[in-house]
Amino acid sequence: MKKILMVIISLLMVFTSLSFADNGIVFSDMTGHWSKDYVLPLTETGIIGGYEDGTFRPDAPIKADEFITLCIKSLDGVTVDTQGNTGYWATPYINKAYELGIITDKEMDEGNFERQLSRQDMASFVIRTLKQTEDVGYPTGLYKAYEITDYTRISDGKHQDIMLLYTVGLTNGKPGKVFDPQGTLTRGEASVVLYRMLNKDARQPVQTKGIPSVDTVYDRRVGQEIWYDVPTTLFAPIGADGQPDVEAVELFKHFSPLEGMNGTEYIKPYFNPVSENMGVFVYDTDITDMGYLEYVPHVDVEFVINMSDYATRPDNYTFCFRNRGRNPKYENYDALHGETLDYLYDYLFEDQADEVKNKIISIYDQGQRDYESQIQEVLTLNNGRSVQITSQNDFTVFIGQKK
Q1: How far apart are CA 134 and CA 197, in angstroms?
Q2: What is the torsion angle, in degrees rounded to the nearest 10, for the CA atoms of residue 277, residue 279, residue 285 and residue 291?
Q3: Of the given ranges (5-9, 29-33, 142-146, 286-290), which has the lowest mean pLDDT?
Q4: Cα–Cα separations (whole angstroms), residue 216 to 66, 200, 230, 291, 388
Q5: What crossing angle do the helices spanning 119-130 and 64-74 adopt, rounded to 10°?
Q6: What is the C-alpha separation between 315 and 380, in angstroms, rounded?
Q7: Which of 27, 57, 111, 274 has its CA 20 to 30 A from that of 291?
Q8: How far is 24 from 18, CA to CA, in rounded Å?
Q9: 102: alpha, beta or left? (left if phi > 0; alpha if psi -120 to 50)
Q10: Is the separation of the CB atoms in 170 and 38 below 8 Å?
Q11: Starting from the edge strand earliest in sequence, which strands make up the sheet with 317-321, in order?
Q12: How far apart are CA 329 and CA 309, in angstroms?
């Protein structure tokens, strides 16, 4: 009797250490693993499987060809003909991925599909897969300062896809608010992203409650693509004190309702997700019916809010005075755009607005006599801002954070 009891206890211990999917698939290494609730549903649908030894190996790296195959299998209604394929097993899935635009030659490292997949390449593949069935739009807001502390380690061309992962809610990153873009994707991590892609209720978009923001519409060129009327929410950047700096949002809110012709100038607020800047273009004429190449020469002043690395950079705001040949003296800008410029001066320079403006006028007019010679002056204001006025070919004013 004791022997039978011991056998029963032993069997119970074995079964409690196994993880079962509803279709009867058993994994001996998934009990208690953080990705279990994502892995097992995917095995039920046949999207992903385990190994012959009964393990899933959730912490093992996943290869590019394996993840590409999972992306294709996740697409309902997409068929892949594997009949007659006697060569490399993943060829039919890779060909389908190329056909759908999920992968590109440039990012595949000369066709090395058997390499371990980086987390940043995963972001591109899974976002392009999601775009096959959903309109994901454009990243809502600039999350990097809040949720991606290793943003600077992301390779060129991958930033927008990674931000979309956060925006849509397919990832929460890793502990410490890092994304680990160069790190290797694991089988467990891959399962989580794919499960959330397939199940909207499981997504966990970034929480931005309480962060000052402004709604706008993005309508500028991004690389070779042109985006029009894309709703975008811009969040206040993190300042040097680690808190959201509401100034950037307040300035943008001031100009957003003014878009269009206002007296002698045309005002156009903008957001550029590639350079991560927002700001205001001020034109000398009505550009409503002009094409891009027509209205660019009419920019007189550009006021830029530099969102990238906002907390540490010395030039959070920039004035760029254009068309110096057409404006031989500063008074030309004053005549056309005096109200707009004075608002910015008062906001940024406060009780020293007139002092800084007079300095800008003096250096601008002096620089007009010799474009190529450099004239530069640095001021430190009572509100803690640094102001650098530079004239050499271009005329630019760089302004730091209020302290």
Answers
A1: 10
A2: 30
A3: 5-9
A4: 39, 25, 8, 21, 30
A5: 20
A6: 13
A7: 274
A8: 11
A9: alpha
A10: no
A11: 260-262, 265-272, 277-283, 299-306, 317-321, 394-399, 386-392, 375-380
A12: 34
